[in-house]
């Protein structure tokens, strides 16, 4: 059974973790720092990031990254690639869930904009440094709820069709379409970088507290879910398991994949739809203005 003790030494390595000031991202950053990794906490609120860094200890830095704003994404990427000649790990962890329809600063539906487009753009902008870092990995965090997702490229704004569960599920399916397509393109290019995916199962974090404020729901929620530390294990396995080569998807091995030690899990067939993944990629490049360039042509 894979456990935290299986995370090998990360000494000399650099990781960037999005959404590292809270929840599963914080637990992921802490575990990596405890293994000797230099961890950049890429967070939308630098004060909360600094507080998180103080609680983590070890070698950390905080950089501002608001995934709901393309100018913030560009600035963060420029700072990072200017400062770090190597980036071994990118953990695309940050996520948002909004009960009512909202938009990013650039006018994208919020959950699709932050969870997918923001990470798509950020990854593309720092990829050059990762391609120059041997054995680098990009881990994108999805969810069991991707199973209920559908990506309709003709209705990305969801102006008339918005339901928060559908919008969240769509963003998490997009995370997997991206992670698997990125791996196909990296492999075709013979890159030293691998793309993998993970999901944490059920973890009672700020993501749900905001959506379900009732005390009873909170209490029940805590009972059926696992801790952020346990939730981070699938991400940590994707990031560090020497047996993983790219394209793997890890999640908790218990009932319904809600809790338990991480193991390889299956995504729905739609997540492996290569035609849809290519279309989503092209649309994501168009919307964000971030082009991955000739190195990563469709496989
Ligand atoms: N909790 C679960 O059961 C569960 C299940 C499946 C998948 N997931 C996934 O796990 C990941 C982590 O979620 P979590 O449960 O740890 O939730 P969380 O405690 O709410 O943490 C989410 C993190 O994302 C950050 N974030 C939100 N919007 C952002 C933005 N615009 N720019 C940059 N960062 C932003 C938050 O920043 P602030 O600290 O500033 O709010 C926070 O640090 C997400 O991708 C989520 O979809 C969670």
UniProtKB/TrEMBL annotation:
Task: Tell me which UniProt keywords the record has, alphabetically.
Answer: Oxidoreductase
InterPro entries (alphabetical) = NAD(P)-bd_dom_sf, SDR_fam
Domain of life according to the entry: Bacteria
Pfam families of this UniProt entry?
A: adh_short
Task: Spell out the SUPFAM superfamilies in the cross-references.
Answer: NAD(P)-binding Rossmann-fold domains
> Where would one find coiled-coil regions in this protein?
none
Record NCBIfam families: PRK06197.1 (NF004846)
Stored PANTHER family: PHOSPHATIDYLINOSITOL-GLYCAN BIOSYNTHESIS CLASS F PROTEIN, PHOSPHATIDYLINOSITOL-GLYCAN BIOSYNTHESIS CLASS F PROTEIN-RELATED
Q: What is this protein called?
A: Oxidoreductase
Q: Which organism is it from?
A: Phytohabitans kaempferiae
